[in-house]
Amino acid sequence: MSRLVLFHIIFFALCLPCFSTGQMNYADSDVGSLNTVLPVFSIEEVRPSTAHRGQTVYLTVRSSKALAANPAVTINGVPTDSVIKDSDRAYTCVWKVLPEDPPGNAVIIITGEDPLGNGGVLNDNTSLVILTPGHGLPQRAWPVLIILPLLGILALFNRRKNATRGVYLPLVLLLAAASAFGELPQVSNVRFSQGSDGAGGTKVDIYYDLIAPNGPCTVAVALSKNGGEDGFIYSATAVRGDISRVDTGINHHIVWAIAEDYPNEDIPNARVRVTAEEAFSLVFMTDTHVDMKCSEYNLQSMAEWIIDQEENLNIRYVGHLGDVGDNRGSGNLTAMLQKARSALQPVMDSGIALSVAIGNHDYEPPGSRSADAFNRSDTFGLDLYEGTFEQESEGPCLDPGGTINHYSTQEIYGRPYLFLTLEYYPRDKVLDWADNLVRNQFPEHEVIVSTHAYLNEFGNLSASTYVQSAPGPEYSNSGISMWERYFKYWENLRFILNGHFINTPRQKYLEQTGAYGNVVHSHFFNYQNWGYKFGSLYYVTESGLNQAATVKIFTLYPASNRVVIRNYTPSAGKEIEAANPNTHSLVEMMR
To answer: Do the strands 50-51 and 129-130 form a parallel or antiparallel pair, or are they unpaired?
Structure first.
């Protein structure tokens, strides 16, 4: 081998490693991440979980990981109305139950992708149940429908009605309480911000979401000055916006003129609470006969105020407790009652239920039971009421076309009510008819009784009677005998209201306990002939009378079992005397 060949062999052997290192077939990247995990969806909450057709449903959906976009959500194949991102992985979906949605379990499908394209899906058919049209029964009520027939079967083995009632009534009431009519309102997503009101002042904008499963709600605002530790004891009264008859929806808005309630204050740890309650009002007036001799002005002022406040107070029922006109002295009773009908007509036209009781001054001639003027079609005839004793009486009736004993029914927030109006010191045959209504025809209804005379101005049951005092079909029952012979045994009786008595005090309250443990709340009030004065100024009617035409307002909060009571005089534009009591509990009411 020549020296030249040997040299090349050695040269290539030494250089070969260098050529191999420079020609590798892979390369390393910078450190990063890889992920093939699919997003997992869950439904945290459905409000309400049992919905009827036409109701809005809110779903809270959570993803196990961040998504590239909001998830797609369909219910029974229909996309939700909106999907709102609450946080990095939580979303609120809004959907309305459609008329064509079949009753039963709804199918909810949720799909979405993460930023890397990993897709997840959830198919759920257990979280939402759709009822048939109307409110229907909540799921927790169905055990009652099963158990009540069983109780009926057991009752067949007990021949004594009172014994059966004693054994099974507590269980029935317990079941009724557990199955409560519908769900409570739910408030969520409360937030607030403060800024200029555009007029040189300040305001607070409050927003909230509401689910009102049983109908529109009344909303109140409260303030905490230390982040909630004080229990929100400061009220917010200078508020406007979505505070009355508020229905299900999101972004309801309240504007609070905070400086009117809390001027010149620095509150660094403020917190706002929004409360929604199912509240409605009943309004009563009484003894306008002194006014009606001269003018219907006061009655008109009360009717106009009722119409103005219908929405704010959610007024569902208006009752006049008797002595509408005057059968004594100057004036024509029929003409007075016609003017009264005209004054109250706007209330009827508004759709508010109206009841007018007969008082002793509404009979003609005085001291009789003749109600011809009262029963006319242009005064307070049959067109007003759902049913009357005079129509439904099986035996001879003094006024077959009369309306002096009547009733109407309503369902309010899922609860049934019977409004029963009875004549002045009602006769036995009238109370027998009413007894059948309350105990047999409407045993599940909350009963509210209006009559002209029952509780007197001293807080005692009246001992007086009218026309006939001997027992019999025409026997006239005093307040004492009404309670002892009838009202005491109406276990669904809640209120009794009356006027008539004219001595001071002008209002009285009596709490009674019925034979079955139910609490009955009796209220007397009458402001006839009562002049009222503030400072040196008298408030008078157009006719110059010092007459305090005052209404009594009962605002009921069924869920919290309480009633708030006010006396208000529309012609004065203020409360001339505080209601006493101004509130009481309805512990035994509205199970």
So the answer is: parallel
Tell which residue, 261, 49, 255, 15, has the closest CA to residue 139: 49
d(CA 192, CA 513): 46
What is the pTM assigned to this prediction? 0.65
Residue 528 tokens read as 């006839």
Q: State whether 530 and 391 are in the same domain.
A: yes
Tell me: the pLDDT tens digits for 444-490?
999 999 999 999 999 999 998 887 666 667 889 999 999 999 999 99
Instruction: Enter the DSSP assignment of 374.
Output: T
Whole-number average pLDDT of the chain: 81
pLDDT of amino acid 582: 93
Outline where DSSP puts E strands in 443-550. 446-450, 493-498, 507-513, 519-525, 533-534, 537-538
CA distance 477 to 456: 15
Instruction: Report pLDDT for 100.
Output: 81
pLDDT band with cut points at 50, 70 and 90 for residue 573? confident
Give the residue from 122, 155, 179 where a domain finishes: 179
Let me know whether 231 and 193 are in one domain: yes
Residues 491 and 393 in one domain: yes
Same domain, 334 and 292: yes
Taken in order 583, 587, 589, 591, the sign of the CA dihedral is positive
- In this structure, what CATH number is given to the domain that contains residue 562? 3.60.21.10
Domain count, the chain: 4
Burial (0-12, 13-18, 19+ Cβ within 10 Å), 162: exposed
174 and 195 within one domain: no
Strand 406-412 to strand 387-388: parallel, antiparallel, or no bridges (unpaired)? antiparallel
479/572 same-domain check: yes
The verdict on residue 360 lying in a domain is yes
What's the pLDDT band for 175 if we cut at 50, 70, 90? very low
Domain identity same for 477 and 405: yes
Q: Which of 561, 552, 549 has its CA nearest to residue 581?
A: 552
Rounded Cα–Cα distance for residues 417 and 172 (Å): 19
CA 549 to chain centre: 27
- State yes or no: pLDDT of 144 exceeds 50: no
Say whether both 270 and 332 belong to one domain: no
Query: Is 120 inside any structural domain?
Result: yes
pLDDT in tens, 50-72: 887 677 888 999 999 999 999 99
93-122 per-position pLDDT tens digit: 998 888 788 888 899 999 998 887 888 999
CA–CA separation, 16 and 8 (whole Å):
12
CATH number of the domain that residue 66 is part of: 2.60.40.2450
Give dist(CA 449, CA 288) in Å, integer: 20
Q: Which domain holds residue 258?
A: 186-277
Instruction: Evaluate whether residue 96 is within a structural domain.
Output: yes
